[in-house]
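=== RUN LOG ===
request id: a7f3
mode: sequence -> structure
chains: 1
length: 367
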Amino acid sequence: MRNPLVLTIAVLGLALASVQPSRAIPAFARQYHISCATCHVAPPKLNAFGQQFTDKGYLFEGLQQRAYIPDTVTGDEALNLFDRVPLGFRFQQWAELRVQNRQWRQDFKAPWAAKFLTGGALGSIANFYAYVIFEKGEPPFFEDAWVHLHPWENFGLQLGQFQISDLMFPRELRLTRADYSIYKIGRFPLTYQRGAIISAFDVSLGVVNGNGIGEYIAGDADADNRKVFFGHIALPLDLGLFALYGEVPDTAGALIRGYRVGVDWQTWLNEQLQLFTQFLYGYDQRRSEWLAGGFLGLDYVDFPHVVAALLSSVEAPRDTYYRQFRTHSVALQYSYYPYRNLRLLVELEREFVTPILRLTIGADFAY
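=== RESULT ===
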């Protein structure tokens, strides 16, 4: 605990706060007999009620008992058994035209991803979420797979597989195909990990293995005891602060220490226009081995029409490990929803460091 960043995170942890990753699936509409519009302004994007619903552990006040078999049938008041298995399905199909080095290539990426999702409230003190994904033609595997316990108000413990970046901006809920690049790169990515998050009020404190969600080796998910620690605090005016410290071995087994700090912010400028941004800075071992970047997004929703724009950037100095991840890109997308759960989209993305122009036409639907 001699490291100042670790001490800072630990101090934040004394004030622990509740921040849950936002998830919603079509199974909830079936469970509670409601429209997807109850929680989504434009799927997968949540509205204020949808955010509140997830923050409360998928509990729908006044309608929760609809999800369970009545105890008059089971004869057991201590049993909350779903009346129907909470399953949802999401499919993403792309047709892509890419221009690089004055050469063009057309490719059907269909399906790009197929997800089989489940989740719900086991009762007032526990909820869960998980999905199996078939992506890019690879064998199926679990990405998100966690349980969240909240026995007291404003307190929670999440255990399982999740993305660290869910504390800021869940990648699963973005509208653009273009991704949040700063979350995905390097030795300390903020994507899928195995671990735990303890939370209360406006602060969250977490620890993860730090090696992703690959296969177990000799019965262990992590080959060593080095962990990655992180914390996030929500501030007034929709601001958030993030910090991370971790240790991982390199390919030769040498110890590498990583440090990250960041700020996030989002706001609805009016009922239709949302602005959101993330900035992240960090380094590994030496301050000369730094990286910095983030993204700026703007979503305009006039259902059934949606326009989304995303600027993404990662910068690093020459002759350093992170130089290979340098990127600057802009993406513009238009989506049309013929049905609430079917989105047709066209997206144009331009990458500037390695000049690529990508046009995507596709469908994203769930049921």
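=== NOTES ===
The longest helix spans residues 4-13.
The longest strand covers residues 103-123.
=== END ===
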